[in-house]
Specification:
By secondary structure, this protein is of the alpha/beta class. It is 37% helix and 17% strand. The chain has a single domain (10-239), classed as Spore Coat Polysaccharide Biosynthesis Protein SpsA, Chain A, CATH 3.90.550. It has helices at residues 23-33, 50-58, 74-84, 104-112, 134-147, 180-188, 212-231, 234-239; strands at residues 10-16, 38-43, 63-67, 89-92, 117-121, 128-130, 161-164, 193-197, 199-201. It starts with 9 loop residues before the first strand and ends with a helix.
Length: 241
């Protein structure tokens, strides 16, 4: 797999909350795959030493730590990382090793070649889910079906994507919960989105942060998007087809 071109530097944004068990391995793999990249880790006051490990990595590698106090949430952490990025080209991925770092060059290349966004997709041919029990797969499928009327992407709830920061200029995002990609896709309305198949594996260590509260936040997010973009602006829906 080719690496991103030297002329297009990229920032990798990784939001973290208690990911000390995986962050070092992830950063090493990301930088081995994309040696010209900078990694920005946005940490929400982890209590397990995640920030200390990132600081140690930053002494010898192009890694920056952004620590947030008094604010939590994956979506707002991603937006903070985008704001901190020194490059226009940015990749967002989870810290738990569920997203393969080796797929980053394909995402970057798709945007370099003209896509507005590239998404690491579990639900296109060649994509797969490993290690998820039936009920979790069912919940993911249900959430995806709820989001489908808003966007034309097969995996709108993915957490692994690449975009240019300029795509968000002048766009009012209302982030909540975990699903920032859905918010960006629905409100920024990128014209060309490429989905790159990935093999999504269950987290390598630590505990999932997606619980009842996050499910409620997702439902509120979907409700807000339906209200703002479909029911208040029916012509918007017609223009999409």
């Amino acid at each position: 797999m080719k690496s991103p071109s030297p002329g297009a530097p990229v920032t990798i944004v990784i939001p973290t909350l208690n990911e000390a068990a995986t962050i070092e391995n992830l950063v090493r793999r990301v930088l081995a795959t994309c040696p010209g990249a900078e990694v920005v880790v946005v940490d929400d006051a982890s209590g397990d030493g995640t920030a200390d490990r990132v600081r140690a990595l930053g002494r010898t590698r192009p890694v920056r730590l952004v620590e947030r106090r008094g604010e939590q949430g994956l979506s707002t952490a991603v937006l903070r990382g985008l704001a901190e990025a020194r490059t226009d080209l940015v990749v967002v991925m989870d810290a738990d090793l569920s997203h393969p770092p080796e797929a980053v060059p394909a995402l970057v290349r798709a945007v370099e070649e003209g896509a507005d966004m590239a998404v690491g997709s579990r639900y296109v041919p060649g994509g797969a889910l490993d290690g998820w029990p039936f009920l979790r797969r069912l919940a993911s499928a249900a959430g995806t079906l709820l989001a489908r009327p808003l966007v034309r992407v097969r995996d709108p709830l993915a957490g692994f994507f690449c975009l240019r920061k300029g795509l968000l200029e002048g766009i009012e995002l209302r982030p909540r919960g975990f699903k920032i990609l859905l918010e960006i896709l629905a409100r920024a309305r990128p014209r060309k989105v490429v989905e790159i198949p990935i093999r999504f594996v269950d987290r390598a260590a630590g505990q999932s942060k997606f619980g009842p509260r996050e499910r409620r936040e997702f439902l509120r997010q979907v409700w807000a998007l339906y209200r703002d973009l479909l029911w208040k602006s029916p012509r918007w829906a017609l223009r999409r087809h």
